[in-house]
Design brief:
heterodimer; A: alpha+beta; Aldehyde Oxidoreductase, domain 3; 4-stranded mixed sheet; 10 strands; 36% strand; B: alpha+beta; Ubiquitin-like (UB roll); 5 strands; 21% helix; 29% strand
């Protein structure tokens, strides 16, 4: 079961994870990850984070990513929930969970999904600090994280 | 014909708004649309790092724009 959603309001990881677990009683393990808004950036306190997206591309791209994870690992289901709009420090911004017969497949599928969400999903973030708004630029680490998943050609 | 331009991320600061309606010649390309914008904005939108979507499909500057199409300019993502 693939469940991919964009949420303009509150994301409740505990309730969503419990619902996902109930829907996958056959799974031997469920791995989940919750991303939260950081409270600081360098020495600046973050007052607000704003997440914008492009509806014609963002959700379809996330759905394609979920399908790629399901095709690559033997998992029963994948949950991928992402916030949009305005968030405060400490608020949940993303929840990814994978249910599998064995834990390693669940860990790997959730890790794969997060690395690709961070580097490829169509989201733009800006944060408000005391001095005003500033856009968050892509990080080289995000692309390096994604590169871990490239399958080397057979030699 | 009217075409809606959409500016994502920091491009909306450069454009002064997240959307703009422009008048385009029928049968024209995205590149031709850019020629109608302020030079500074057009130069930023021509950056190879900026992806272009016409009517929801990713393409390049040579993509044809039809009546009613939405043309979006997508700078590098900040990540999910």
């Amino acid at each position: 079961m693939i469940d991919v959603r964009l949420l303009d309001g509150l994301l409740e990881p505990a309730a969503e994870a419990a619902r996902f677990a109930r829907a996958h009683r056959q799974a031997g393990g469920i791995a989940s990850f919750v991303g939260q808004v950081r409270a600081e950036c360098g020495t600046d306190a973050v007052l607000e984070l704003e997440l914008s997206h492009y509806p014609p591309l963002t959700l379809p791209g996330m759905e394609a990513l979920a399908e790629a994870a399901v095709a690559r690992w033997p998992i029963f289901g994948l949950l991928m929930l992402h916030r949009t709009g305005s968030l405060g420090p400490g608020e949940p911004i993303v929840l990814v969970a994978a249910a599998a017969r064995h834990r390693r497949d669940a860990f790997a599928a959730a890790d794969f999904a997060m690395d690709h969400l961070k580097s490829e999903a169509w989201f733009w973030k800006r944060e408000r600090i005391a001095a005003g708004w500033r856009w968050i630029e892509p990080r080289a680490e995000d692309h390096a994280d994604k590169a871990r998943w490239v399958i080397s050609p057979q030699v | 014909m009217p075409v809606r331009l959409v500016f994502l991320g920091r491009l909306q600061d450069l454009a002064g708004a997240s959307e703009r309606m422009v008048e385009a010649a029928p049968g024209g390309t995205v590149a031709a649309l850019l020629d109608r914008l302020e030079p500074e904005l057009a130069a930023a939108l021509r950056s190879p790092k900026v992806r272009i979507a016409v009517a929801g499909a990713l393409g390049g500057l040579d993509r044809l724009v039809s009546d009613g199409d939405e043309v979006a300019f997508l700078p590098p993502v900040s990540g999910g």
